[in-house]
Amino acid sequence: MLGGLLAERYGAKITIIVGLFLSSLAHILTPVAAWTSSNVMIAMQLIRGIGQGLIPAAHCVVAANWFPMIERGLLNSLVLSGYCVGALVSGFSAGSMCLSSFLGGWPSVYYVYGGLGLILCLCFQVFLYETPKSHPKIKDSELNYILQNQERDLSQKRPPTPWRKILTSVPVYAVTYAIFAAFWVGAHFLSVHPIFLGTIMHFSLQE
């Protein structure tokens, strides 16, 4: 919710970059936080979570501006599949990085992926544009195709958000609970599953 509000007020591009920068910086500083104290570690993960939380809603604003309505489902699926692909790739590579001597072993996982996040921030700054109209090299045919396949003019002023109805809506709380539960189970599985494989099944980090 916060990411969407910030994206509509200040722009989706800057919201995504700020969120990714906070998350990447916290990722890089995680080894230092772990060596310092548990409280610093918790604070660092909180900052990383705030940064990551800004991105999905801001992405929806970018998608609404750029993706034609008839292609939005496919394109959003391709973009969001990056979460799964990233988890798969990092899961395979993290074990080998932990066992290596590169950048101290396990801290290298945080340094490398945090550094990649900062590089991605730079890529977004250079290549990402808020709307098709603001892109300096878009063709007229491409611009017309995108604009003609949007359900409405996204630049129009929107009516005020009905916060009271939202905060008193039972379906809203039901969906919120379902999403929280799904992410909680997923995060718990990602946290506990490697421990189970190592301590119970006796798999090595590389396996």
TrEMBL record:
The chain crosses the membrane at residues 12-34, 46-67, 79-103, 109-129, 166-187. This is Sodium-dependent phosphate transport protein 1. It is found in: Membrane. It holds the Pfam family MFS_1. It comes from Araneus ventricosus (Orbweaver spider). Coiled coil: none annotated. Its main location: membrane. One of its GO terms (cellular component) is membrane. GO terms for molecular function: transmembrane transporter activity. InterPro entries: MFS, MFS_dom, MFS_Na/Anion_cotransporter, MFS_trans_sf. PROSITE patterns: MFS. The keyword Membrane applies. It comes from the Eukaryota. Keywords: Membrane, Transmembrane, Transmembrane helix. It is a multi-pass membrane protein. One of its GO terms (biological process) is monoatomic anion transport. Residues 1-207 form the Major facilitator superfamily (MFS) profile domain. The lineage of its organism: Eukaryota, Metazoa, Ecdysozoa, Arthropoda, Chelicerata.
